[in-house]
What does this fold into?
Amino acid sequence: MLWDAVQSPQYPILQLLKIFNVHPSASIPISIASLPAPPAAGAVALMLFPVTSDNLPLSWPLANQGVTIAVNGTSAGDVPHPPTRSSAARTLAGLDITRHAQVGSSLVMSVISTGWSSTMLLAWCGVKTVHDVVEEARTFAMDCTTAKVRSSKPAAAIRTNTLHSGASHSMGCERQGDAADVDSAVVEVSLRCPLSHGRIVIPARGVRCEHESTFDLDTFVRHALQVHSWNCPVCDGPVGLRELRVHSIVAEALFILSDLSLEVCDRIHVWPDGRWDIGSITKAKNLTKAHDVG
Ligand SMILES: [Zn+2]
It folds into this structure.
């Protein structure tokens, strides 16, 4: 299949029908004498995608580079918004024109641009819901995550160390009293998603990411599908749908803290060898609340 790595996860190309060029102020009607039936049963859509001359995804134009698309004499509606962040890991952003076309009838498209050039693909595509794509990403990331089996930290030890420590400093559950261990190698990791700012549910990062910080997997996938750009919100590196991995250390911390009703703890310290401890509890009153927990 063409363009496998850059296809829209929601609209995978089933059959390419037409490739044509768009130039500013040069509207040439594009026509198909008889629109063929879609090559597969089920949910399908007739989609237009802008690409570069090298068949790489191209974002739709900014408002001041206006493009108007009509199909069989009817406006095809607003084009998708271009991504606002880095475009390094873009996927095809499609315009659904299914409702304007009829299988077996002629199809005439008029694409008028005032300042934008592109090659366009017209294709029959499969259709996946956002929920389907999120589920696919979640399942794949979990299957691929090579969780290093670490000795599970006894919950009671964490509870003891945490609840008897002051709010002004963190207390390593396995490193108490060993100040030399608190060195530059330890990294503070937030348990809040940099995209939603809410608490992370499934902590993820890209397979090539070199940082310990994570983002919420579901939030990332939904955001990427919306902007058609798959860049890590921490390092801006490319993170494709199948390059997401769950951070097993952060996942373990989230699970244990939830188990101890310590959701007030919004950051942890992570050591290179995979150990972690509670980084900070932001407010004394929250610590007091934590003390009250069983
Ligand atoms: Zn990253």
In short: The pocket of zinc ion is lined by residues 205-206, 209, 211, 232, 234-235, 237 (CB under 6 Å). Residues 147-181, 282-294 have pLDDT under 50 and may be disordered. The radius of gyration is 25 Å. The domain at 131-291 is CATH 3.30.40.10 (Herpes Virus-1).
